[in-house]
Each structure stands twice: as structure tokens, then as C-alpha cells.
Known about the structure:
Layout: H1 2-16, E1 24-33, E2 39-48, E3 70-76, H2 87-95, E4 99-103, E5 108-109, E6 112-113, H3 123-137, H4 139-144, E7 145-155, H5 157-166, H6 172-178, H7 182-187, E8 189-190, E9 194-195, H8 197-201, E10 219-223, E11 243-247, H9 260-266, E12 270-274, H10 307-325
Amino acid sequence: MRRIVHLLILFFISSLLPAQIKNVHQMSKEYVDNSRGHRLVLTEIWYPKELPAEEKNSAFAVSKAVTQKYPLVLLSHGTGGNRFSLMWLAKILAGEGFIVTSVDHFGNTTDNRIPEYFVRYWERPLDISFVLDQLLKDPDLSAKINHDKLAVVGFSLGGYTSLALAGAKLDCSLLKKATKSKQGKRELNIPEIGDLTQLIDHIDCKEIPEKLKDDRIKAFVALSPALGLGFTPKLQYTIESPVLIIASRGDSITPIKTNAMKYHRLIPSSKIKMLNGNPGHYVFLPKIKKYNPDETVFFEDPPGIDRTLIHQETGRMIIEFLNNSL
Length: 326
């Protein structure tokens, strides 16, 4: 476990290193949700070069020359990740004319690991909706966002987050029941922190809001979504918004049978695409350099997988989906 924690710290540090793309600007925001106990939601924003760079006292410099409104994509990282985990995707999207916002889900990030918050799955869609509130209230930011073209993309637990915002309702009691099953014990023992089953047993299901769906968001993408064990296969959701699920048959962390394919069957409006080459679950993370060639990294790729090519392929799928859906 120490080795995994060390590698996660290395991942966090490496993810902060700037990967310059000439046609993309980047800035940071700090929001606090006082309705949820002074919850800090660190936020990163990437935006196209056509928008003026950030000035000292405003999100975007006031410019009458820039009248175009841009679609907005909100990103949700996976368990134990951070707002930079999908930076590669943020830069691809911003380069194609999207404003992109990515949040840190408090207590469930690389540098802020609170075990209880690794299972408070309902906090994540609330984070996304809260940040969206802040963006649309900001006079400078809101003026540049096309309010009719809002989307969310999430990876792993962030994939669940995206689908929850679309209207998929997780059954808390079913998830608790899954902790007693063989499949549940396998899927709920994760490399990032270990066995989650006891933490899930202690969830107070009455604490979870009835509605997590955000009606303002019009398109949803889930990359290798997790927590399929909390959904009954007999139910279909009346989700009419377009949903794209991207997964890999080689995923052993969120196996497609109990996650991606299950969500696809539950959501009639969804489309599912499988990655070429059957990479593993963590192919959606940024590349990380191994400092010891003999060290096993739980998110390294199988032989023959080029993560950069997978990222490019995924970016193309998402851009095509968003252009057709928004």
C-alpha cells in the first residue's frame, strides 16, 4: 500500500506539470459550498485561445470583440484522482472550442484522502451542479458560455457521477447488499485505498438526496463507469438525454459486464463504444514515468497499448458525440 500511495503522489505531482498547448488558456478557481459544511471545491478551467487570457480581477478580460458563446464541458475525476486527471482531455476539448471545467471532489483526491469520502458517491454530482451554479453566476464566465450546450464527462467513479447527473438513481441498499457478494468484494476492493465494503456498510442511506439529476446538462459521457453493482438490471431509466459510454473489455477494475454494459442496458438513450486493443481501466489517466523499471504500477498499460493513441481516439469519440448532441 505504501508503494501505491507513493505512486499516487508521483502521479499528482506529474499531473501538475504544464503541458503547453498553444491554443488553450488555463486558470484556477476556489469555490466553497457552505450548504455542505464549508466544502471546498477546487476548480480548474481550460478555454480556447480566442477568449482573452485571465486578467488580475476577472475570469476573462472584458472584450467587445469576443461575442461567441462556447459550449461547456464539466469533468469528474475517478476515485483518488484530482482535477488534473483528465487534463489531456480538457486540452483536446478546449482546443476544439469548448470551455472545460474540472473539479476536485473533496476527500476523494490524491492529496486529500479521507476514507469515508471515498464512498460518499452522492457528493460528486452535487459538486458538479454546485460549480455549474458558480460558473453561470459569474458575469464574465457566464457571458462566454452557451447555457444551452452543457455537458459532463466522468471517469470511473466520475463515470457514475455523469450518469447520476443524467438521472440514473443508485440503490443504496442494493450497493450495501453487494458488499456481501463475491463480485462486490472484488470490485469494492480498489487499488487506490483498499477494501471499501465496511465503509459502504456504514452509509446512512437517508442522507442521500432524492434527486441528483441536473436538468441543465444536456449530454453525458461515462468513461469506464463504476458502481454498477448499485443498479438493478431489471430497471430501465427514462433518460432521454444523449449518453455515451466508453469502455474496454480488458477492464478488471470496473468489469464491463457489471458496469458499462449494465448501464447501457439500463439507459435506452445510451450508446456504447469499446476501445481498441482492450487496454486496462487506468488507460484514461495521464502517462506517468516509472522511476524504478522493476516496480509494478497498478495503472500501467498492458504490452502493446499506446496510451497517447487511446487518448486521441477517446477525444475524437467525445468531440463527435458532443457535436452531434449539443
